[in-house]
Amino acid sequence: MYDDTISAISTPLGEGGIGIVRMSGPQAITIAEEIFHPAHGISLKQAKSHTLHYGTIVSQGREIDEVLVTVMHAPRTYTRENIVEINCHGGIVALRTVLDLTLRKGARLAERGEFTKRAFLNGRISLDQAKSVLDIVKAKTKLGLEAAVDQLHGRFSEGIAFIRDKIAESLAEIDVGIDFPDQEEQIGQILPLLVKVIDYTNKLLKQGEQGKIVTDGLTIALVGRPNVGKSTLFNALLAEERAIVTPIPGTTRDTVEEEATINGVLFRIIDTAGLCKPTGQIEKAAVRRTEQAINRADLVLLLLDASSPLTSEDHTLLEKNWEKPVLVVINKSDLPCKLQQTIPGTAKNAYKISARNGEGIKQLSHGIVNLLLEGYVPSKQTILLLDVWEQDLLFRISNLLSNAAEALKNAQSPDMVAEQLRSAYRVAGELQGIDLSEDVLDHIFARFCVGK
Ligand SMILES: Nc1nc2c(ncn2[C@@H]2O[C@H](COP(=O)(O)OP(=O)(O)OP(=O)(O)O)[C@@H](O)[C@H]2O)c(=O)[nH]1
Ligand SMILES: [Mg+2]
User: Fold this and answer.
1) How far, in Å, from the CA of 350 to the mean position of ligand 2?
2) Which CATH number fits domain 132-213+387-432: 3.40.50.980, 1.20.1740.10, 1.20.120.430, 1.10.3660.10?
3) Mutate which of 222, 245, 337 for ligand 1 pocket (most atoms within 8 A of beta carbon)
4) 393 in Cβ contact with 384 (< 8 Å)
5) What confidence tens digit (pLDDT) does each residue in 255-278 have?
6) Fold of 217-372
7) What is the pLDDT of residues 302-355, one digit of tens each?
8) H helices of 217-280, where?
């Protein structure tokens, strides 16, 4: 338990009507008592836990703001410490003044994520849950948010606890086995157990990769010769008239980029200038921009126009080695088809759409998600939100366990196997937040904002 009391504005700063100053620590109620004048004469010190009190904040006889104060006693609080939340109504100046008053009366300004750090260090939530709080604050998609909430309930922590238990079980088997001379039998006992944990660890890693896709998003570049309907498709995918569409080839010059959620996954979609032989400086610059967009993209949508025969520009694009996934999209399929030739190469699975009237867009969206997520439909139960640190530790566990399995198969000494298992067990402990160094903790919580 900490002996100091922290204070911060825990709502986003801005013009908003109500803001909250939150304090946590042993002195929280005493400090609030000193600056709060209750309207009904009930002192905060005598107030029951989890009650709300109406009154004013007063400094040197001057009324600062009309407020509602929530009093919560340890340990049934977010940080397991005494918490007071002062709901201010007077805008940003009043909020700042109230915060200053709490600091003058003995509170310390909270560091980033310090409330959540206390919740973790006081055993209220696991490290994974603490990080889920951050993911909830930062979630951009509904699915990202749901996954973070799900993880807040401890799904990842349970997974790590399972891995750690199984490693401990294997270690116990080896210890028993050391007294058993029959190595065959020992391998028969432990190997299936190890394979099970390795598979499970790899499954979590895979879920982490999928989670990264859900939260960080994927980039799609819309590419094609001028006038095939890239900007029209861009608008259709965003469901808004974002880019300029005209019948004039060369309408889009600069790349235009927007985020959209498709089947729960966050995408950055880039509309590009039509690719053709550049004649002037503007075209040259436009082509360069398009190339940069293609380089950044996880997927290229290559658009063709069904209402005109393939041009040499189309052929060049179709034959190009993109070095990344490409989906061919035949647009304007509402018009009579003039694409007589069979389309070469990658276009076998081309999507026929009409960007203008929306036909085929749903199928295309499914196709995009299927291709990039390998047919896997992300859901809150099947993705994990892992940061680089967690991913790295999981990866180490997987490697150490594989080494142990190899050593076992090759009938190496039980000590070698046990050594690898013990390392894996230690890493799993780190993931559970056991014996974490101050540095690692600071690093984790520094990603939070002040007041959380
Ligand atoms: N009939 C029909 N017309 C379409 C369709 N999609 C786009 N168009 C028309 O094709 C013309 C060009 O559309 P844009 O979306 O501006 O094409 P673009 O590929 O962005 O063109 P640039 O920016 O010049 O490279 C416009 O007149 C659109 O209305 C479609 O599915 N069906
Ligand atoms: Mg355009």
Assistant:
1) 21
2) 1.20.120.430
3) 245
4) no
5) 999 998 887 788 999 999 999 887
6) Rossmann fold (3.40.50)
7) 999 999 999 999 999 998 888 999 999 999 999 998 886 667 655 557 899 999
8) 230-238
